[in-house]
Protein backbone atom coordinates (compact mmCIF):
# COMPACT_ATOMS: atom_id res chain seq x y z
CA UNK A 1 0.00 0.00 0.00
CA UNK A 2 1.41 3.39 -0.88
CA UNK A 3 1.53 6.12 1.76
CA UNK A 4 -1.50 8.43 1.84
CA UNK A 5 -0.89 11.81 0.32
CA UNK A 6 -0.91 14.62 2.87
CA UNK A 7 -2.08 17.85 1.33
CA UNK A 8 0.25 20.76 2.12
CA UNK A 9 -1.57 23.61 3.91
CA UNK A 10 -0.72 25.74 0.86
CA UNK A 11 -2.89 23.46 -1.24
CA UNK A 12 -5.85 23.56 1.09
CA UNK A 13 -5.92 27.37 1.40
CA UNK A 14 -5.39 29.56 -1.65
CA UNK A 15 -1.88 30.78 -1.08
CA UNK A 16 0.35 33.68 -2.04
CA UNK A 17 3.96 32.62 -2.47
CA UNK A 18 6.57 35.05 -1.16
CA UNK A 19 10.00 34.49 -2.65
CA UNK A 20 12.56 35.84 -0.23
CA UNK A 21 15.59 37.70 -1.56
CA UNK A 22 16.89 38.28 1.95
CA UNK A 23 15.26 41.55 3.01
CA UNK A 24 14.93 41.93 6.75
CA UNK A 25 11.23 42.67 6.18
CA UNK A 26 10.32 39.66 4.02
CA UNK A 27 8.53 37.78 6.80
CA UNK A 28 6.31 40.82 7.34
CA UNK A 29 4.80 40.18 3.91
CA UNK A 30 3.48 36.82 5.09
CA UNK A 31 2.38 38.45 8.33
CA UNK A 32 0.38 41.23 6.66
CA UNK A 33 -1.36 38.94 4.18
CA UNK A 34 -2.49 36.65 6.96
CA UNK A 35 -3.85 39.65 8.85
CA UNK A 36 -6.55 39.91 6.21
CA UNK A 37 -7.11 36.14 6.12
CA UNK A 38 -4.98 35.21 3.13
CA UNK A 39 -2.59 32.37 3.67
CA UNK A 40 0.94 33.16 2.51
CA UNK A 41 4.09 31.13 2.58
CA UNK A 42 7.66 32.26 2.20
CA UNK A 43 10.35 30.29 0.39
CA UNK A 44 13.91 31.19 -0.57
CA UNK A 45 14.26 33.06 -3.88
CA UNK A 46 16.18 30.11 -5.27
CA UNK A 47 13.11 27.86 -5.05
CA UNK A 48 12.69 25.80 -8.22
CA UNK A 49 9.13 26.28 -9.38
CA UNK A 50 8.97 22.74 -10.77
CA UNK A 51 9.67 21.43 -7.26
CA UNK A 52 6.68 23.19 -5.69
CA UNK A 53 3.97 20.66 -4.96
CA UNK A 54 1.25 23.31 -4.88
CA UNK A 55 0.15 26.14 -7.11
CA UNK A 56 0.20 29.69 -5.74
CA UNK A 57 -2.56 32.21 -6.51
CA UNK A 58 0.07 34.90 -6.88
CA UNK A 59 3.76 35.51 -6.25
CA UNK A 60 5.58 38.32 -4.44
CA UNK A 61 9.29 38.88 -5.00
CA UNK A 62 10.68 40.49 -1.85
CA UNK A 63 13.34 43.12 -1.34
CA UNK A 64 16.92 42.14 -0.71
CA UNK A 65 20.35 43.52 0.15
CA UNK A 66 21.98 42.63 -3.20
CA UNK A 67 22.23 44.55 -6.45
CA UNK A 68 20.60 42.70 -9.34
CA UNK A 69 23.50 43.52 -11.66
CA UNK A 70 26.20 42.15 -9.33
CA UNK A 71 27.83 38.94 -10.58
CA UNK A 72 26.76 36.93 -7.52
CA UNK A 73 23.24 38.38 -7.25
CA UNK A 74 20.45 35.87 -6.68
CA UNK A 75 17.85 35.48 -9.44
CA UNK A 76 14.40 34.06 -9.60
CA UNK A 77 13.59 30.81 -11.43
CA UNK A 78 12.16 32.11 -14.74
CA UNK A 79 9.50 29.38 -14.63
CA UNK A 80 7.67 31.66 -12.20
CA UNK A 81 6.48 33.62 -15.26
CA UNK A 82 4.94 30.49 -16.77
CA UNK A 83 2.70 29.92 -13.77
CA UNK A 84 0.25 32.37 -15.31
CA UNK A 85 -0.47 34.04 -11.94
CA UNK A 86 -0.01 37.71 -10.96
CA UNK A 87 3.44 38.77 -9.75
CA UNK A 88 4.42 41.70 -7.54
CA UNK A 89 8.06 42.75 -7.23
CA UNK A 90 9.03 44.86 -4.24
CA UNK A 91 12.24 46.94 -4.36
CA UNK A 92 14.87 44.32 -5.26
CA UNK A 93 11.94 42.29 -6.57
CA UNK A 94 10.99 45.08 -8.99
CA UNK A 95 14.61 45.62 -10.00
CA UNK A 96 14.80 41.90 -10.71
CA UNK A 97 11.71 42.06 -12.93
CA UNK A 98 13.28 44.92 -14.89
CA UNK A 99 16.75 43.37 -15.04
CA UNK A 100 15.69 40.02 -16.41
CA UNK A 101 13.62 41.86 -19.01
CA UNK A 102 16.76 43.61 -20.23
CA UNK A 103 16.24 46.98 -18.58
CA UNK A 104 19.19 48.85 -17.11
CA UNK A 105 19.39 48.87 -13.33
CA UNK A 106 22.33 50.51 -11.61
CA UNK A 107 23.43 52.68 -8.75
CA UNK A 108 21.36 55.87 -8.39
CA UNK A 109 23.02 59.23 -7.64
CA UNK A 110 21.59 59.12 -4.18
CA UNK A 111 20.42 56.50 -1.81
CA UNK A 112 16.81 56.79 -0.76
CA UNK A 113 16.09 55.70 2.76
CA UNK A 114 12.98 56.67 4.66
CA UNK A 115 9.73 58.35 3.90
CA UNK A 116 8.53 59.47 0.46
CA UNK A 117 5.26 60.69 -0.95
CA UNK A 118 3.57 58.39 -3.42
CA UNK A 119 1.92 59.92 -6.50
CA UNK A 120 -0.30 57.62 -8.47
CA UNK A 121 -0.17 58.28 -12.21
CA UNK A 122 -2.57 55.60 -13.41
CA UNK A 123 -5.69 55.80 -11.31
CA UNK A 124 -7.21 52.84 -13.06
CA UNK A 125 -4.50 50.51 -11.74
CA UNK A 126 -6.10 48.02 -9.36
CA UNK A 127 -2.89 47.90 -7.32
CA UNK A 128 -3.28 51.50 -6.17
CA UNK A 129 -6.98 51.49 -5.31
CA UNK A 130 -7.31 53.78 -2.24
CA UNK A 131 -3.58 54.33 -1.77
CA UNK A 132 -2.91 57.57 -3.66
CA UNK A 133 -0.93 60.39 -2.00
CA UNK A 134 0.03 58.28 0.94
CA UNK A 135 3.39 58.15 2.62
CA UNK A 136 5.54 55.21 1.62
CA UNK A 137 8.81 53.93 3.01
CA UNK A 138 11.89 53.48 0.82
CA UNK A 139 15.18 51.70 1.33
CA UNK A 140 17.31 51.43 -1.78
CA UNK A 141 20.43 52.64 -3.54
CA UNK A 142 19.83 51.17 -7.01
CA UNK A 143 17.25 52.33 -9.51
CA UNK A 144 15.70 51.55 -12.87
CA UNK A 145 16.98 53.51 -15.87
CA UNK A 146 14.09 52.70 -18.15
CA UNK A 147 10.94 50.66 -18.50
CA UNK A 148 10.93 47.00 -19.39
CA UNK A 149 9.06 46.14 -22.62
CA UNK A 150 5.32 46.01 -22.22
CA UNK A 151 5.40 47.95 -18.92
CA UNK A 152 4.07 51.39 -18.06
CA UNK A 153 4.59 53.78 -15.18
CA UNK A 154 1.71 53.70 -12.71
CA UNK A 155 3.21 55.73 -9.85
CA UNK A 156 6.08 58.07 -9.14
CA UNK A 157 7.72 59.73 -6.16
CA UNK A 158 10.03 62.71 -6.07
CA UNK A 159 13.15 60.56 -6.29
CA UNK A 160 11.79 57.54 -8.09
CA UNK A 161 10.31 58.09 -11.52
CA UNK A 162 9.65 54.33 -11.60
CA UNK A 163 8.05 54.11 -8.20
CA UNK A 164 5.32 51.82 -9.56
CA UNK A 165 5.28 49.95 -12.88
CA UNK A 166 2.95 47.39 -14.40
CA UNK A 167 2.33 45.12 -17.31
CA UNK A 168 -1.39 44.73 -16.94
CA UNK A 169 -1.73 42.18 -19.70
CA UNK A 170 0.67 39.80 -17.95
CA UNK A 171 -0.47 40.95 -14.49
CA UNK A 172 3.06 41.83 -13.42
CA UNK A 173 3.58 44.75 -11.02
CA UNK A 174 6.63 46.36 -9.48
CA UNK A 175 6.99 48.93 -6.69
CA UNK A 176 10.10 50.61 -5.37
CA UNK A 177 8.85 51.06 -1.79
CA UNK A 178 8.11 48.59 0.99
CA UNK A 179 4.37 48.15 1.61
CA UNK A 180 4.99 45.56 4.35
CA UNK A 181 6.40 48.01 6.91
CA UNK A 182 3.98 50.06 8.99
CA UNK A 183 5.71 53.31 7.93
CA UNK A 184 4.05 52.81 4.54
CA UNK A 185 0.66 54.25 5.49
CA UNK A 186 -1.50 52.33 3.05
CA UNK A 187 0.86 49.40 2.57
CA UNK A 188 -1.64 46.89 3.86
CA UNK A 189 -4.33 48.20 1.50
CA UNK A 190 -1.94 47.79 -1.40
CA UNK A 191 -1.10 44.21 -0.45
CA UNK A 192 -4.78 43.47 -0.11
CA UNK A 193 -5.43 44.98 -3.55
CA UNK A 194 -2.82 42.65 -4.94
CA UNK A 195 -3.86 39.48 -3.15
CA UNK A 196 -7.65 39.88 -3.18
CA UNK A 197 -8.47 41.99 -6.26
CA UNK A 198 -5.64 41.03 -8.58
CA UNK A 199 -4.81 37.44 -7.53
CA UNK A 200 -8.41 36.71 -6.52
CA UNK A 201 -7.28 34.72 -3.49
CA UNK A 202 -10.09 33.70 -1.14
CA UNK A 203 -9.90 35.27 2.31
CA UNK A 204 -10.53 32.10 4.26
CA UNK A 205 -7.39 31.69 6.37
CA UNK A 206 -8.61 31.63 9.96
CA UNK A 207 -7.76 29.56 12.99
CA UNK A 208 -11.25 28.11 12.96
CA UNK A 209 -10.73 26.77 9.45
CA UNK A 210 -7.20 25.77 10.29
CA UNK A 211 -8.30 23.44 13.12
CA UNK A 212 -10.42 21.27 10.86
CA UNK A 213 -7.89 21.00 8.06
CA UNK A 214 -5.06 20.38 10.49
CA UNK A 215 -6.91 17.60 12.31
CA UNK A 216 -7.55 15.95 8.95
CA UNK A 217 -3.93 16.37 7.95
CA UNK A 218 -2.71 14.83 11.21
CA UNK A 219 -5.08 11.85 10.79
CA UNK A 220 -3.87 11.23 7.25
CA UNK A 221 -0.24 11.55 8.23
CA UNK A 222 -0.41 9.34 11.31
CA UNK A 223 -2.71 6.77 9.73
CA UNK A 224 -5.27 4.55 11.46
CA UNK A 225 -3.08 2.94 14.12
CA UNK A 226 0.31 4.62 14.56
CA UNK A 227 1.10 6.35 17.86
CA UNK A 228 2.70 9.68 18.73
CA UNK A 229 4.60 11.00 21.74
CA UNK A 230 5.52 14.55 22.61
CA UNK A 231 6.90 16.60 25.47
CA UNK A 232 4.77 19.28 27.10
CA UNK A 233 6.12 22.09 29.24
CA UNK A 234 3.10 24.00 30.49
CA UNK A 235 3.68 26.68 27.85
CA UNK A 236 1.19 27.65 25.18
CA UNK A 237 2.92 26.07 22.15
CA UNK A 238 3.30 22.56 23.51
CA UNK A 239 -0.17 22.64 25.08
CA UNK A 240 -1.85 23.74 21.85
CA UNK A 241 0.09 21.12 19.87
CA UNK A 242 -0.87 18.41 22.38
CA UNK A 243 -4.52 19.44 22.34
CA UNK A 244 -4.62 19.38 18.55
CA UNK A 245 -3.04 15.93 18.57
CA UNK A 246 -5.57 14.65 21.12
CA UNK A 247 -8.45 16.01 19.03
CA UNK A 248 -7.02 14.24 16.00
CA UNK A 249 -6.00 10.82 17.38
CA UNK A 250 -7.25 10.66 20.98
CA UNK A 251 -5.29 8.34 23.24
CA UNK A 252 -2.89 7.30 20.53
CA UNK A 253 -1.11 10.51 21.56
CA UNK A 254 1.02 10.37 24.70
CA UNK A 255 2.21 13.58 26.33
CA UNK A 256 5.16 13.57 28.69
CA UNK A 257 6.04 16.24 31.22
CA UNK A 258 9.53 15.94 32.62
CA UNK A 259 9.81 17.52 36.06
CA UNK A 260 13.43 18.61 36.00
CA UNK A 261 13.43 20.07 39.50
CA UNK A 262 13.80 23.60 38.18
CA UNK A 263 10.19 24.27 37.21
CA UNK A 264 8.09 27.05 38.73
CA UNK A 265 6.19 26.55 41.98
CA UNK A 266 3.64 23.69 41.76
CA UNK A 267 4.12 23.60 37.99
CA UNK A 268 3.99 19.83 37.50
CA UNK A 269 0.82 19.60 39.58
CA UNK A 270 -0.88 22.48 37.75
CA UNK A 271 0.07 21.16 34.29
CA UNK A 272 -1.21 17.72 35.23
CA UNK A 273 -4.55 19.13 36.35
CA UNK A 274 -5.00 21.44 33.39
CA UNK A 275 -3.98 18.98 30.70
CA UNK A 276 -5.50 15.80 32.06
CA UNK A 277 -8.69 16.90 33.74
CA UNK A 278 -9.24 20.11 31.85
CA UNK A 279 -8.20 19.21 28.33
CA UNK A 280 -8.43 15.42 28.25
CA UNK A 281 -4.82 14.97 27.14
CA UNK A 282 -3.21 11.67 28.08
CA UNK A 283 -0.24 12.73 30.17
CA UNK A 284 2.60 11.03 32.03
CA UNK A 285 4.46 13.21 34.53
CA UNK A 286 7.90 11.98 35.36
CA UNK A 287 9.68 13.26 38.41
CA UNK A 288 13.35 13.43 37.53
CA UNK A 289 14.24 16.31 39.83
CA UNK A 290 16.97 14.40 41.64
CA UNK A 291 18.59 13.23 38.43
CA UNK A 292 18.82 16.79 37.09
CA UNK A 293 19.89 18.41 40.35
CA UNK A 294 22.56 15.78 41.03
CA UNK A 295 24.04 16.38 37.59
CA UNK A 296 23.98 20.14 38.14
CA UNK A 297 25.90 19.93 41.43
CA UNK A 298 29.06 22.03 41.40
CA UNK A 299 28.38 23.52 37.94
CA UNK A 300 28.40 27.31 37.68
CA UNK A 301 28.98 27.95 33.97
CA UNK A 302 25.66 28.95 32.30
CA UNK A 303 26.39 27.15 29.04
CA UNK A 304 27.31 23.97 30.91
CA UNK A 305 24.10 24.19 32.91
CA UNK A 306 22.06 24.48 29.73
CA UNK A 307 23.87 21.56 28.14
CA UNK A 308 23.44 19.31 31.17
CA UNK A 309 19.73 20.09 31.30
CA UNK A 310 19.29 19.52 27.56
CA UNK A 311 21.13 16.19 27.59
CA UNK A 312 19.48 14.93 30.75
CA UNK A 313 16.12 15.87 29.26
CA UNK A 314 16.76 13.68 26.21
CA UNK A 315 17.85 10.84 28.45
CA UNK A 316 14.83 10.99 30.72
CA UNK A 317 12.41 11.52 27.85
CA UNK A 318 13.71 8.52 25.93
CA UNK A 319 13.56 6.33 29.01
CA UNK A 320 10.00 7.37 29.68
CA UNK A 321 8.98 6.96 26.04
CA UNK A 322 10.36 3.40 26.03
CA UNK A 323 8.01 2.51 28.86
CA UNK A 324 4.92 3.73 27.10
CA UNK A 325 3.02 0.80 25.74
CA UNK A 326 1.35 1.53 22.43
CA UNK A 327 -2.31 0.49 22.23
CA UNK A 328 -1.41 -1.83 19.39
CA UNK A 329 1.21 -3.82 21.21
CA UNK A 330 2.88 -5.10 18.04
CA UNK A 331 3.56 -1.50 16.96
CA UNK A 332 6.19 0.92 18.12
CA UNK A 333 5.70 4.62 18.63
CA UNK A 334 6.30 6.15 15.26
CA UNK A 335 6.10 9.94 15.60
CA UNK A 336 7.45 12.70 17.79
CA UNK A 337 5.32 15.81 18.17
CA UNK A 338 7.06 19.16 18.26
CA UNK A 339 5.60 22.62 18.74
CA UNK A 340 7.83 24.34 16.17
CA UNK A 341 6.41 27.72 15.10
CA UNK A 342 6.68 29.56 11.80
CA UNK A 343 9.34 32.07 12.95
CA UNK A 344 11.69 29.12 13.58
CA UNK A 345 10.91 27.79 10.12
CA UNK A 346 11.47 31.22 8.54
CA UNK A 347 14.75 31.45 10.38
CA UNK A 348 15.84 28.15 8.87
CA UNK A 349 14.75 28.83 5.29
CA UNK A 350 15.68 32.49 5.20
CA UNK A 351 17.80 33.24 2.21
CA UNK A 352 21.23 34.33 3.35
CA UNK A 353 23.16 34.33 0.11
CA UNK A 354 23.41 32.13 -2.97
CA UNK A 355 26.66 30.47 -1.93
CA UNK A 356 25.65 29.76 1.63
CA UNK A 357 23.83 26.57 2.42
CA UNK A 358 20.45 27.09 3.92
CA UNK A 359 20.40 26.33 7.61
CA UNK A 360 18.33 23.30 8.49
CA UNK A 361 15.99 23.60 11.39
CA UNK A 362 17.25 22.37 14.70
CA UNK A 363 14.89 20.24 16.71
CA UNK A 364 15.34 18.91 20.22
CA UNK A 365 18.99 18.00 19.68
CA UNK A 366 19.59 14.29 19.26
CA UNK A 367 16.12 13.02 20.08
CA UNK A 368 15.24 11.99 16.57
CA UNK A 369 18.57 10.35 15.80
CA UNK A 370 18.40 8.06 18.78
CA UNK A 371 14.73 7.24 18.66
CA UNK A 372 14.15 6.79 14.93
CA UNK A 373 10.97 8.82 15.20
CA UNK A 374 9.35 10.81 12.46
CA UNK A 375 8.76 14.44 13.30
CA UNK A 376 5.27 15.89 13.31
CA UNK A 377 4.91 19.68 13.62
CA UNK A 378 1.29 20.84 13.42
CA UNK A 379 2.11 24.48 14.28
CA UNK A 380 4.92 25.00 11.80
CA UNK A 381 2.81 27.30 9.63
CA UNK A 382 1.71 29.56 12.50
CA UNK A 383 2.87 32.77 14.11
CA UNK A 384 2.73 33.06 17.90
CA UNK A 385 -0.45 35.15 17.96
CA UNK A 386 -2.14 32.62 15.67
CA UNK A 387 -1.20 29.84 18.11
CA UNK A 388 -2.73 31.87 20.93
CA UNK A 389 -5.92 32.37 18.96
CA UNK A 390 -6.01 28.65 18.24
CA UNK A 391 -5.54 27.95 21.95
CA UNK A 392 -8.47 30.18 22.87
CA UNK A 393 -10.72 28.51 20.28
CA UNK A 394 -9.79 25.04 21.53
CA UNK A 395 -10.70 25.94 25.08
CA UNK A 396 -7.25 26.13 26.60
CA UNK A 397 -7.45 28.27 29.77
CA UNK A 398 -6.94 31.97 29.02
CA UNK A 399 -4.12 32.36 31.58
CA UNK A 400 -2.17 29.52 30.01
CA UNK A 401 -2.67 30.90 26.51
CA UNK A 402 -1.24 34.27 27.54
CA UNK A 403 1.50 32.96 29.79
CA UNK A 404 4.93 34.56 29.61
CA UNK A 405 7.60 32.40 27.95
CA UNK A 406 9.63 30.22 30.31
CA UNK A 407 13.04 28.89 29.26
CA UNK A 408 13.72 25.15 28.97
CA UNK A 409 16.54 25.24 31.58
CA UNK A 410 14.03 26.93 33.89
CA UNK A 411 15.06 28.27 37.26
CA UNK A 412 18.54 26.76 36.81
CA UNK A 413 19.52 29.81 34.75
CA UNK A 414 17.75 32.14 37.18
CA UNK A 415 19.86 30.91 40.06
CA UNK A 416 23.17 32.49 39.19
CA UNK A 417 26.12 30.33 40.08
CA UNK A 418 25.68 26.85 41.48
CA UNK A 419 22.20 25.33 41.36
CA UNK A 420 21.35 23.62 44.64
CA UNK A 421 17.98 22.55 46.00
CA UNK A 422 17.97 25.34 48.57
CA UNK A 423 18.95 28.01 46.03
CA UNK A 424 16.20 26.83 43.67
CA UNK A 425 13.72 27.00 46.55
CA UNK A 426 14.62 30.64 47.28
CA UNK A 427 14.45 31.74 43.63
CA UNK A 428 11.18 29.86 43.14
CA UNK A 429 9.51 31.39 46.20
CA UNK A 430 10.59 34.92 45.26
CA UNK A 431 9.43 34.44 41.68
CA UNK A 432 6.06 33.20 42.85
CA UNK A 433 5.47 36.28 45.01
CA UNK A 434 6.59 38.60 42.22
CA UNK A 435 4.30 37.06 39.59
CA UNK A 436 1.41 36.90 42.04
CA UNK A 437 1.76 40.64 42.73
CA UNK A 438 2.03 41.41 39.01
CA UNK A 439 -1.23 39.56 38.40
CA UNK A 440 -2.91 41.26 41.36
CA UNK A 441 -1.88 44.67 40.03
CA UNK A 442 -3.42 43.77 36.64
CA UNK A 443 -0.06 44.23 34.89
CA UNK A 444 0.62 40.68 33.69
CA UNK A 445 -0.64 41.18 30.14
CA UNK A 446 1.23 44.46 29.68
CA UNK A 447 4.51 42.70 30.41
CA UNK A 448 6.10 40.32 27.92
CA UNK A 449 8.19 38.42 30.44
CA UNK A 450 8.88 38.76 34.16
CA UNK A 451 10.87 36.67 36.63
CA UNK A 452 13.08 36.77 39.70
CA UNK A 453 16.78 35.89 39.72
CA UNK A 454 18.82 34.83 42.72
CA UNK A 455 22.28 36.41 42.75
CA UNK A 456 25.27 34.59 44.24
CA UNK A 457 26.28 37.52 46.44
CA UNK A 458 25.57 38.26 50.05
CA UNK A 459 24.60 41.57 51.49
CA UNK A 460 24.12 42.94 54.97
CA UNK A 461 20.66 43.70 56.33
CA UNK A 462 18.93 44.26 59.59
CA UNK A 463 15.83 42.42 60.72
CA UNK A 464 14.34 42.64 64.20
CA UNK A 465 17.46 44.44 65.46
CA UNK A 466 19.57 41.52 64.27
CA UNK A 467 22.24 41.82 61.65
CA UNK A 468 21.51 39.60 58.68
CA UNK A 469 23.86 38.58 55.91
CA UNK A 470 21.88 37.04 53.09
CA UNK A 471 21.48 36.95 49.32
CA UNK A 472 20.06 39.36 46.74
CA UNK A 473 17.05 38.90 44.47
CA UNK A 474 17.00 40.78 41.16
CA UNK A 475 13.63 41.33 39.52
CA UNK A 476 13.32 41.53 35.74
CA UNK A 477 10.31 42.61 33.66
CA UNK A 478 10.44 43.52 30.00
CA UNK A 479 8.22 44.77 27.22
CA UNK A 480 8.90 43.62 23.68
CA UNK A 481 7.12 42.57 20.52
CA UNK A 482 9.67 40.11 19.16
CA UNK A 483 12.19 39.47 21.98
CA UNK A 484 14.96 40.68 19.66
CA UNK A 485 14.99 44.03 21.41
CA UNK A 486 13.34 44.78 24.73
CA UNK A 487 12.91 47.52 27.28
CA UNK A 488 12.40 47.25 31.03
CA UNK A 489 8.89 47.73 32.34
CA UNK A 490 8.20 51.01 34.21
CA UNK A 491 6.52 49.70 37.38
CA UNK A 492 4.94 52.20 39.75
CA UNK A 493 7.22 52.74 42.79
CA UNK A 494 4.50 51.54 45.13
CA UNK A 495 4.42 48.22 43.32
CA UNK A 496 8.17 47.66 43.63
CA UNK A 497 8.04 48.64 47.28
CA UNK A 498 5.36 46.07 48.00
CA UNK A 499 7.11 43.24 46.14
CA UNK A 500 10.46 43.99 47.80
CA UNK A 501 8.91 44.03 51.21
CA UNK A 502 7.01 40.78 50.67
CA UNK A 503 10.06 38.95 49.31
CA UNK A 504 12.40 39.99 52.13
CA UNK A 505 9.77 39.19 54.73
CA UNK A 506 8.49 35.93 53.33
CA UNK A 507 11.50 34.32 51.72
CA UNK A 508 14.15 33.21 54.10
CA UNK A 509 17.66 33.76 52.74
CA UNK A 510 16.99 37.09 51.00
CA UNK A 511 18.19 40.37 52.48
CA UNK A 512 17.77 42.72 49.55
CA UNK A 513 15.78 43.17 46.33
CA UNK A 514 16.85 45.12 43.24
CA UNK A 515 15.10 45.91 39.97
CA UNK A 516 16.94 45.39 36.67
CA UNK A 517 16.72 48.52 34.49
CA UNK A 518 18.78 47.38 31.52
CA UNK A 519 17.36 47.16 28.02
CA UNK A 520 18.17 44.50 25.41
CA UNK A 521 20.64 45.18 23.88
CA UNK A 522 23.06 45.51 25.63
CA UNK A 523 21.65 43.08 28.21
CA UNK A 524 19.72 39.90 27.35
CA UNK A 525 16.32 39.07 28.78
CA UNK A 526 17.60 36.22 30.95
CA UNK A 527 20.59 36.76 33.20
CA UNK A 528 22.39 33.61 32.12
N1 LIG B 1 19.82 46.35 -2.85
C1 LIG B 1 18.84 47.00 -3.68
C2 LIG B 1 19.02 48.52 -3.65
O1 LIG B 1 19.79 49.03 -2.89
C3 LIG B 1 17.45 46.63 -3.21
C4 LIG B 1 17.12 47.13 -1.84
C5 LIG B 1 15.85 46.57 -1.26
O2 LIG B 1 15.27 45.62 -1.79
N2 LIG B 1 15.43 47.12 -0.15
O3 LIG B 1 18.38 49.21 -4.41
Automatic annotation (TrEMBL):
Homodimer. This is GMP synthase [glutamine-hydrolyzing]. GO terms for cellular component: cytosol. Its cofactor is Mg(2+). It catalyses: XMP + L-glutamine + ATP + H2O = GMP + L-glutamate + AMP + diphosphate + 2 H(+). Pfam families: GATase, GMP_synt_C, NAD_synthase. Catalyzes the conversion of xanthine monophosphate (XMP) to GMP in the presence of glutamine and ATP through an adenyl-XMP intermediate. It comes from the Eukaryota. GO terms for molecular function: ATP binding; GMP synthase activity. Residues 205-403 form the GMPS ATP-PPase domain. Keywords: ATP-binding, Glutamine amidotransferase, GMP biosynthesis, Ligase, Magnesium, Nucleotide-binding, Purine biosynthesis. ATP binds at residues 233-239. InterPro entries: Class_I_gatase-like, GATASE, GMP_synth_C, GMP_synth_GATase, GMP_synthase, GMPS_ATP_PPase_dom, NAD/GMP_synthase, Rossmann-like_a/b/a_fold. Pathway: Purine metabolism; GMP biosynthesis; GMP from XMP (L-Gln route): step 1/1. Its EC number is 6.3.5.2. It is found in: Cytoplasm, Cytosol. It comes from Wickerhamomyces pijperi. The keyword Secreted does not apply.
Amino acid sequence: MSAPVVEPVSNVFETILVLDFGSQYSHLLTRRLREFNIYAEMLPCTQKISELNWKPKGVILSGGPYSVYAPDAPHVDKAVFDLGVPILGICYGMQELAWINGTEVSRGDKREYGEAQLSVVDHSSPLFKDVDHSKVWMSHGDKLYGLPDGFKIIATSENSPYCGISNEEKQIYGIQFHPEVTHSEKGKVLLKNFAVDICKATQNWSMKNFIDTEIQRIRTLVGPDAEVIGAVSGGVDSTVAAKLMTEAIGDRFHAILVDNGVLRKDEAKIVKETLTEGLGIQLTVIDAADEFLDKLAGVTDPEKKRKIIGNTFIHVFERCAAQIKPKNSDKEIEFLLQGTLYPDVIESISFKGPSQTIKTHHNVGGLLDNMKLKLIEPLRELFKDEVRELGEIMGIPHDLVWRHPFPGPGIAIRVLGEVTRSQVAIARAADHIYIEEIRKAGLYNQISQAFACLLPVKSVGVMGDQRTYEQVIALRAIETTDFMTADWFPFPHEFLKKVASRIVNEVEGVARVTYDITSKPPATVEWE
